[in-house]
Amino acid sequence: MLVYPSGIDVSTSTLRYLSARLRTRRQERGTRWRRVSANRQALLVLAHLRCGHTYAQLAAGFGIGTATAYRYVAEAIDVLAALAPTLADAMKTASTKAFVMLDGTLLPIDRVAADRPFYSGKHKKHGMNVQVITDPMGRLLWASPALPGAVHDVRAAREHGIVDALTRADVTCWADKGYRGAGGTVRIPYWGRWDTLSAGQQAVNRSHAKIRALVEQAMATLKSWRLLRKLRCSTTRITSLVQAVLTLHLASSNR
Fold this sequence. Notes:
Elements: H1 12-29, H2 38-51, H3 55-62, H4 66-82, H5 87-94, E1 100-108, E2 119-120, E3 125-134, E4 140-143, E5 147-148, H6 153-159, H7 162-169, E6 173-174, E7 186-187, H8 199-212, H9 215-223, H10 238-252
Parallel strand pairs: 1-6, 6-7
Antiparallel strand pairs: 1-3, 2-3, 3-4, 3-5
Helix pairs in contact: 1-2, 1-10, 2-4, 3-4, 4-10, 5-7
């Protein structure tokens, strides 16, 4: 396999943050020797998450075995996922905001037609449903555990306890029509065909759409980590991957 120099579009502060967490993990475990330093392991993990490089590619580039590359990535993912904010943490932050926005996204996975629980009829593909809460500027505050793609957004929000948490915190939340019937403090557009709505309802829906437009920035933030654009791992690992990406994003944005 050929090896060539490449670059990763993440900040050096993100690399330092992950390196520090890995050094702490090694000290806790009493690790005496590794094939690569904590800094190199952090770089390897960022290459995997940000660029989607496979374990074989990472192994060739860093001069280690494929199994070792897998272990290094898995270790870092577990460390980062444990640092991800909980829904309760997100509610504390959300309570300081004028409002928050809620939306769901589908992370594509490599499944076949027989895997019906993972097939999203809305997106016409297999994937995992992840709910995202953002601040009024579209910046990520929290990402939920991943559920099979067949789960609708409103059901996912209820299963994760998002609606109840928002209601208890008395935080107004703007969402799309996929959350119809959510209740609580969740606000959705008026339901119905555009030509059947009154002029006032149409104006409200336009205003609602303008407010929610920024939530797409959060989705773009998640998908900028290329590994999440097409997941080929076990579905049981996807929640940890999403939480790891969230932790890195919040660390790089100093939040």
